């Protein structure tokens, strides 16, 4: 029976080792979404650290259960408890800091627009910090976040490829970063020339500070705008929510593995103390009955 239990723990921890790969993958995916190692670096490291920890701890549980090393199982359970607690904290934290904020629907536009005022809390303060935003802005610029927006259609009269029309652009489903960073806000009333080149409307008077921050310089665009910061926050929210779904599944599995590990540790202690498995510890031949 003890062998069966410890063998089960070994198999389960091997599976947990394999499950840690998606956690690492989630951290690497967040890193790839950032387009640069300097961009939103604080997002991927918690997942990468947790993923590596689960890998190492799973190997500890595998070795401890297969060789009946109670000291290693004890260390394994101690470490697993903190990993489960850290993963639970990260899930709750991710949902808490991405609770507020959403895109706004604009009439005659298929894409959403984003306002920094819709967001609040730690994540907004972190992204809006001038020093950190300078790194994110450089990341977006150097990663050419807006380069892939250009689309061409074939002119039916000439057969040549020409930039898409304004109406076609307005019906596109833009990402939060494309909407917030690569074009001016719709409230500015700028005239569409192409996806990343807009001309001010004559006599237009607007109160949005982002309108004066927009530039047709392809190295500037709206990277200074609050709408760009809001687009980054919306992108973070979307990415963290996806990663949290994987983390919740992994958390449930880790809790099950932890319970099985506790059973294996108790069995290993019985063997170490030369206690027959299933030995009755009852000392009274006729135990007293509780009367209620």
Shape: elongated
Secondary structure: helix percent:
55-70%
Helical stretch tally: 9
Structural class: mainly alpha
Strand tally, please? 6
Instruction: Describe the sheet with the most strands.
Output: 2 strands, antiparallel
Unreliable parts: 34-38
- Mean pLDDT across every amino acid position: 78
As a whole number of angstroms, the C-alpha radius of gyration is: 28 Å
Give, in order, the helices and strands: HHHEEHHEEHHEEHH
% residues in beta strands: 5-15%
End-to-end distance: 37 Å
Order of neighbouring strands in the sheet with most strands = 1-2
Overview of the molecule:
The protein has 292 residues and is mainly alpha-helical. It has nine helices and six strands. A two-stranded antiparallel sheet has the order 1-2. Strands 3-4 form a two-stranded antiparallel ribbon. It has a two-stranded antiparallel sheet with strand order 5-6. The longest helix is centred in the C-terminal third of the chain and has 47 residues. About 2% of the residues have low confidence.
């Amino acid at each position: 029976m003890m062998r069966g239990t410890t063998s089960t723990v070994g198999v389960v921890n091997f599976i947990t080792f394999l499950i840690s790969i998606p956690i690492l993958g989630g951290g690497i995916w967040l890193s790839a979404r950032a387009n640069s190692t300097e961009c939103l670096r604080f997002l991927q490291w918690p997942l990468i650290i947790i993923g590596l920890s689960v890998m190492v701890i799973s190997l500890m549980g595998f070795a401890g259960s297969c060789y009946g090393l109670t000291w290693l199982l004890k260390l394994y359970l101690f470490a697993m408890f903190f990993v489960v607690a850290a993963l639970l904290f990260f899930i709750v934290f991710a949902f808490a800091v991405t609770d507020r904020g959403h895109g706004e629907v604009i009439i005659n536009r298929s894409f959403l627009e984003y306002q920094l005022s819709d967001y609040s809390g730690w994540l907004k303060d972190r992204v809006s910090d001038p020093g950190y935003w300078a790194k994110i802005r450089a990341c977006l610029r150097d990663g050419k976040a807006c380069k892939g927006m250009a689309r061409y259609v074939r002119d039916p009269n000439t057969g040549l490829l020409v930039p898409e029309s304004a109406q076609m652009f307005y019906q596109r489903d833009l990402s939060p970063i494309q909407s917030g960073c690569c074009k001016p806000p719709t409230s500015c009333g700028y005239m569409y020339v192409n996806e990343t080149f807009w001309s001010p409307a004559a006599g237009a008077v607007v109160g949005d500070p982002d309108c004066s921050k927009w530039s047709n310089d392809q190295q500037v665009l709206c990277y200074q705008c609050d709408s760009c910061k809001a687009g980054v926050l919306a992108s973070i929210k979307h990415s963290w929510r996806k990663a949290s779904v994987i983390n919740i599944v992994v958390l449930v599995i880790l809790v099950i593995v932890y319970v099985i590990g506790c059973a294996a540790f108790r069995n290993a202690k019985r063997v170490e103390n030369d206690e027959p498995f299933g030995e009755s510890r009852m000392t009274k031949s006729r135990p007293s009955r509780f009367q209620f």
